[in-house]
Amino acid sequence: MTTAPSSTPRFPEGFLWGGAVAANQVEGAYDEGGKGLSIQDVMPQGIKTPRTAEPTPDNLKLKAIDFYHRYAEDIALLAEMGFKVFRFSIAWSRIFPLGDETEPNEEGLAFYDRVLDECERHGIEPLVTISHYETPLHLAETYDGWTDRRLIGFYERYARTLFERYGSRVKYWLTFNEINSVLHAPLLSGGINTPKEQLSRKDLYTAIHHELVASAAATRIAREVAPEALIGCMVIAMPVYPLTPDPRDVLRAMEVDHSNLAFSDVHVRGVYPGYFLRTLREQGLGLEDLGATEEELALLREHTVDFVSFSYYMSICESATQDVDAGEGNIMGGVPNPTLPASQWGWQIDPIGLRVVLNQFWDRWNKPLFIVENGLGARDELVTGPDGRPTVDDDYRIDYLNDHLVQVAEAIADGVEVIGYTTWGCIDCVSASTAQMSKRYGFIYVDRDDDGTGTLERYRKKSFGWYKEVIASGGASLRA
Predict the structure, then answer these.
(1) pLDDT tens digits, residue range 286-296?
(2) Which InterPro entries match (predicted)?
(3) How many CA atoms lie less than 13 Å away from 160 in the CB half-sphere?
(4) Catalytic residue numbers?
(5) Structural domains in the chain?
(6) pTM
(7) How many other C-beta atoms can be found within 10 angstroms of the C-beta atom of residue 412?
């Protein structure tokens, strides 16, 4: 069995090439159009520091890159690259400003109608995330987020509203972004207002159960209201390697991997896996302690997802035998791999890990896979291009994406069914983890700095033309 790249990367006909953003990182206009506050509006430093009491001027997400007013211009730029799919999220607090109202905000619904109009005008398939790290602040402060069972009903009402409004226009839906990140960032991922260090394991696992039930409920509603729609889960994919061949390191890597896989196991298989139940038992808990009812367990069994989507940025190592410092990854930590280089933010660069995780997920679930986030956060420098216009010579980003896409092609050759690939932050946006603009991912440079200054003008980076060629050639232009 070969591990070397094939000579010509091949992607299937109809492969969905595109990019991804989140409402809270691009839209801005936090107080326009009837929008209520979300948790992001009081997280000016991302997950690095405690939330603030009110929105503060240093929070870049309040204005972000002003996609709210510039969406038509931005989607036209994506179309110029040849995008087949555009992943974006809907801000829950634009539709239900507090989150627990009975009637939606029409002005918010109309905004996303206009976004979809632009996608349709350019022949771009929308991929919509229902909840992407932007729980309405009222739900966090009044109910402590997903620790409260009542959020299931609020989410069901929100999801039904979206499916009834957009179900005939949107084929691909994701229920929660990186749902497994709630283990590490409870406020960001679960809208849980209780500080992480004060949060009991019972409350955390109860919140997990509530989110999984809500996801299954949304899947049920979609099949009732929009039967042509396809519903996917979305998780952080992070291969976990043992630091050494010592069996204890191998076992430790397996246990950490299980903590991530459990969420998709429930989404795909419809039952809580035995290793998750063991984790509960070792905390002195059972499903009954999470308030799980027979009706809810039946809902999980009967309404599993149509596909599995995931973000992939890096792999990590784990060890039970060596005292090593943990690194920093996409929200989750881990032991740095001494054989791999790292990005400017310390994230290990591992293209082969993407092939590994694609094969692992396909072998485990045999469901179509969708890579909905992948990219390199880097400090970009504007220069003058050959045409006299500002640009960025981001060969480092081109190399990163090229090497990862080659491994996607290899996984497809392995027999893995991959629906598509959306790079993260296809236009520069505010970082979720650090709330910086300087951590840039896009093919399109946005003139905005960490201090909030800048014109917000958009400029095509070198990678813009590179990705355009990749899409036009169906991947044939990649360097194997």
Answers:
(1) 999 999 999 99
(2) GH, GH_1_N_CS, Glyco_hydro_1, Glyco_hydro_1_AS
(3) 14
(4) 373
(5) 16-472 (3.20.20.80)
(6) 0.96
(7) 19
Give per-residue pLDDT as tens, 429-469: 999 988 999 999 999 999 999 999 999 999 999 999 999 99
The structure tokens 């998780």 sit at 235
